[in-house]
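Dear support,

I submitted the protein below through the web form. The confirmation email said the job was done, but the results page showed an empty box. After a refresh the structure appeared. I'm attaching both so you can tell me whether what I see now is the final result or a partial one.
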Amino acid sequence: MSIRGRGLGRTILLLCSALAPLCLSLSCKGTNDVAIADGSYPLATVNGKSLPFDEGPEPPRPGASGSCHSLLLRGELLLQRANQTFEFWYEHGSTCTDRTLGRSGATGTYRELAGGLELVAVTGPGLTETYRASISRNTISVASRYYSLGFAR
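What the results page shows now:
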């Protein structure tokens, strides 16, 4: 190897050594990790299917001529990195009415794990529920008790 080649290798090694602490201080992600951004992630899929998602038949209503189905209409995941808090919600509707029937979801804190998040929601005095979320590109998939919720940017 020439003197010029050895000098280039040493320069690259010194440059990498100098930038490593900067990368760590900025929470740089490796090639297998995805950076988590602050903000809003609209609900895009439920159990891999697009919205509105059919939750199934509702109990029959007195005098109703047909069966109605419960739907998941829309939702959102909000992340705030500064204090590591989250909120996710989704709205329920019906095929028999144009009204929103209610909203479900959770709020709490989160922590970053390798390849995902752990969301911890307070559900009552001294009670919590933990959700796991995987991250890929611009999608965060939250596994709840009943659904896999896909939130996308």
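Response: this is the final, complete result; the empty box was a page-load delay. Confidence is low (pLDDT under 50) at residues 1-32.
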